[in-house]
């Protein structure tokens, strides 16, 4: 994961493509660790975004009440105000959230508390965060409509049938499945499991199944 | 740890139950035998007098203390306290005659009816509390039946009291054992908890600093350009990240740190096999699989993934030329099976599941004997069973969930 080549490659690309085609966002970065705030503020600023920082939950609540941010990046054990409460509040305002977590991501946590638009678990590389930010932003801005037999998903509101929230990764996998594109299958297992659980929860006869030599396929149950 | 404590209480309870039961069975057994013997002594005396109970000789006992002693066969009050009847039958025509009738609880008609039923027996209990004896005298068959209700009542009383006593002792010892168990296992539990917490803490406390070091190195590289030293930092951080990730699997897996969700086992298994196909091909191992689709299981997804990968790793290491994986479900029982050819001899090889234990064919391979013990831990936490055996040159590893 930590790959020196990739970092350098990214740095060069960043230096060349620059900040022209990237839409500038106002980002709120919240974490209790000041070193974390300092370095990732810089990293995100390299991408041309404007970064404000907060070091506890109360401050985050205050800041999002007084100012509109395009995206919030939040550590899941931020002190004073519970992370989930902040995310609920942000969801109401339709502000994309990325949650940084020390826990391992599994389908249960994804199913139970898919409040955020995306999760990133420690330890991660700087470019992973910035890439994820771009992806989430693109998703939130796109008007793409995914059609699965009897389900329609509007990508921008991160919701399955307007009910269950889906993460960025889940939408990515679903859209690759619908459009029959390849995706990173090695990392997908957890998300596919949670997707299957969600289909079940809303009683859709959809199902993702692994087919030998072909990879994951989206099927309807009676097939 | 909770499981160990429960086991301790259970075994202790079984031991106490068995001990007390044996003790009470012996006591009550002796009590009932003695009651029977007493009754037999009386019927013997009636038989000696050909169907009639005679008074105990008052001359022998008139001054003796046994006169006021407890009621026994020798008590002078005996002949008036025993309720009984005797019926005789002629041997030739089988005609019955009521020889003696000293009982109110049984009517004369009933007495004769009972006697007819008992004619061919010798001695024993009838109608719960009546002791009978059949004997011959002068060409006739005599049947004597005595009422031992009072004596048996006390015997039954002792039986019931002892059964209640046992129940009370069991309940008390259960409460006591639970209290003692908690105290006994407290230090062990504490140590176990601390160890797990320590590992989890170390893991978590290392993760964020690693992320920050990475980010800071990135900033330095961007501002001053990459150098040997930043590359070195990246290398070392990479090494450390790997270590921290491995630390997680060191902590022993149990039910408490499981995150249970619905897992599509078929998907995971298919994917794991597909992903490793090339490795099997490189080692010239033919691989077959029979996997039922859409078998759903409640369990820890990451752990189950690891189990499947361990099975595949294991077969990659030890299969000689072929391996078969199968997954099926019968009445809620999910069975995962790995079968590969081996040069091991027939028999059970369950020791592969012990920590740090390997079979002789593993000596030259890189195994340290941890993989399958990890599998066992996980399967046990999912209330499943693992077994391994060698049968005619094939190694069979089976998991029942």
Explain this structure.
The complex is a heterodimer of chains A (223) and B (401). Chain A is of the alpha/beta class and 223 residues long. Chain A has helices at 4-17, 34-46, 57-66, 83-92, 107-112, 126-141, 168-178, 185-201, and strands at residues 26-30, 50-54, 71-75, 97-101, 118-121, 145-148, 151-154, 159-160, 164-165, 206-211, 215-220. Chain A is built from eight helices and eleven strands. Chain A is elongated. Chain A starts with a helix and ends with a strand. Chain B has nine helices and 13 strands. Chain B has a six-stranded mixed β-sheet with strand order 7-9-10-13-12-11. Chain B has a five-stranded antiparallel β-sheet with strand order 2-1-5-4-3, sandwiched between helices. Chains A and B meet through helix 1, helix 2, helix 5, helix 8 and strand 10 of A and helix 5, helix 6, strand 6, helix 7 and helix 8 of B.
What is the element layout, followed by pairings?
The complex is a heterodimer of chains A (223) and B (401).
Chain A: H1 4-17, E1 26-30, H2 34-46, E2 50-54, H3 57-66, E3 71-75, H4 83-92, E4 97-101, H5 107-112, E5 118-121, H6 126-141, E6 145-148, E7 151-154, E8 159-160, E9 164-165, H7 168-178, H8 185-201, E10 206-211, E11 215-220
Parallel strand pairs in A: 1-2, 1-3, 3-4, 4-5
Antiparallel strand pairs in A: 6-7, 8-9, 10-11
Chain B: H1 2-48, H2 58-61, H3 78-81, E1 84-90, E2 96-102, H4 108-118, E3 123-126, E4 130-137, E5 140-147, H5 149-224, H6 228-250, E6 260-264, H7 265-282, E7 286-291, E8 296-300, H8 301-318, E9 322-330, E10 333-341, E11 347-348, H9 371-381, E12 385-391, E13 394-400
Parallel strand pairs in B: 7-9
Antiparallel strand pairs in B: 1-2, 1-5, 3-4, 4-5, 6-8, 9-10, 10-13, 11-12, 12-13
